[in-house]
């Protein structure tokens, strides 16, 4: 039976990349050492890291005045690190509340001493099925934080709201490299790797260098200035996830880059959205203009039927289709490595299920 992994993360990786990793697990580049045993001070690592960084810069068209950091601690650690580094002038931060991950970022920013957090817009009244697009800012902020793709609620900003020229910080954990983000519109972008890049353990930060205070003196692992100075090699970096990410970047370049990925993600999600829009049983929960290109939550609006669907889908090779524990129902995550055949299999299965349940 063909198995398709709809997990929101850790998520499916390109099979070609997994096969290459398998080959190099025993001896990396004829070194007779496993890639997991390579020192972060070796020439082998340095070349691997610099190539990955350059490939990422090329794939995302990162301008020269932005620095790229390869960090640890997940996107969640950035919920603290960003306020420490970027909220230093007015110490005021504006957040747009678009659901669970923005709320988690808000809660952590509120714990950073001396920072004042304002929630300037919220999708709460629509149960986060809609994104706020009209945002009023009444005072200057050091930055405005937006969760660009909401992994749980299945919404994404295609176009940034008008933010009066204020610095924008974007969490792109669940659609980095799957959508053509215009880096220049942001002061900082961040993402963890385990959705659209590779194994968990790597977190990417892309920051406009001029926003940083060269005089700041923060604890080393939280200080972008120190981390940039040491080129993300201030402590032992996650060599294996960086290696795997580097292979994915090369794979992406061969596929035609982010533009091609976005087109494929549009095509994949269109199949599922079309099914949902025409279904008598299933309902997509996100408001159509705000729909994500990577995460699609849906439900039958009956807990029992949702359970039945999930159990039968799992038994038919459609794995990890259960919705997030906070929202229930189902969710299909279809990142870059996820094949269109998997979406076709899901849609066929949904149609068959619907015929049985709503003849
Ligand atoms: N932000 C978004 C949009 C996410 O989807 C997630 C995880 O799913 C996170 C942040 C947290 O990432 P991590 O688990 O790497 O800390």
Automatic annotation (TrEMBL):
Could you list this entry's UniProt keywords, alphabetically sorted.
Amino-acid biosynthesis, Aminotransferase, Cytoplasm, Pyridoxal phosphate, Serine biosynthesis, Transferase
Q: Where in the cell is it found?
A: Cytoplasm
- Report the residues modified as N6-(pyridoxal phosphate)lysine: 195
The record's principal subcellular location, in a coarse class, is: cytoplasm
Q: What is its EC number?
A: 2.6.1.52
The protein's enzyme class? transferase
Q: In which pathway does it act?
A: Amino-acid biosynthesis; L-serine biosynthesis; L-serine from 3-phospho-D-glycerate: step 2/3
Summarize where pyridoxal 5'-phosphate binds, as residue positions: 75-76, 101, 151, 171, 194, 235-236
Q: What family is it from?
A: Belongs to the class-V pyridoxal-phosphate-dependent aminotransferase family. SerC subfamily.
Q: Which NCBIfam families match?
A: PRK05355.1, serC_1
What is the protein name given in its UniProt record?
A: Phosphoserine aminotransferase
Species this chain originates from: Ligilactobacillus animalis
Encoding gene (name): serC
């Amino acid at each position: 039976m063909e198995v398709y992994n709809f997990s929101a993360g850790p998520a499916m990786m390109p099979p070609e990349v997994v096969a290459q990793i398998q080959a190099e697990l025993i001896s990396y580049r004829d070194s007779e050492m496993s890639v997991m045993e390579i020192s972060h001070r070796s020439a082998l690592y340095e070349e691997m890291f610099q190539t990955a960084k350059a490939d990422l810069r090329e794939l995302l068209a990162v301008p020269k005045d932005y620095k790229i950091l390869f960090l640890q601690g997940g996107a969640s650690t950035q919920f603290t690190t960003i306020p420490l580094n970027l909220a230093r002038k007015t110490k005021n931060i504006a957040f747009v509340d678009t659901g669970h991950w923005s709320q988690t970022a808000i809660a952590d920013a509120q714990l950073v001493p001396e920072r004042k957090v304002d929630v300037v817009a919220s999708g709460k009244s629509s149960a986060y099925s809609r994104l706020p697009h009209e945002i009023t800012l009444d005072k200057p902020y050091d930055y405005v934080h937006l969760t660009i793709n909401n992994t749980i609620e299945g919404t994404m900003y295609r176009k940034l709201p008008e933010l009066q020229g204020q610095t924008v910080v974007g969490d792109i954990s669940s659609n980095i490299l799957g959508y053509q983000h215009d880096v220049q519109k942001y002061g900082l972008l961040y993402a963890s790797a385990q959705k659209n890049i590779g194994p968990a353990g790597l977190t990417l930060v892309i920051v406009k260098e001029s926003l940083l205070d060269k005089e700041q003196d923060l604890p080393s692992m939280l200080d972008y200035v120190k981390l940039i100075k040491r080129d993300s090699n201030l402590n032992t970096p996650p060599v294996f996830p960086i290696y795997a990410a580097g292979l994915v970047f090369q794979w992406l370049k061969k596929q035609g880059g982010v533009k091609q990925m976005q087109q494929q993600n549009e095509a994949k999600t269109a199949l599922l959205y079309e099914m949902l829009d025409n279904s008598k049983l299933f309902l997509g929960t996100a408001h159509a203009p705000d729909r994500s290109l990577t995460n699609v939550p849906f439900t039958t609006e009956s807990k029992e039927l949702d359970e039945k669907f999930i159990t039968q889908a799992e038994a038919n090779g459609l794995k990890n289709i259960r919705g997030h524990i906070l929202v229930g129902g189902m969710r299909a995550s279809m990142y870059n490595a996820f094949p269109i055949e998997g979406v076709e299999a899901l849609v066929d299965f949904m149609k068959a299920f619907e015929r049985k349940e709503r003849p």
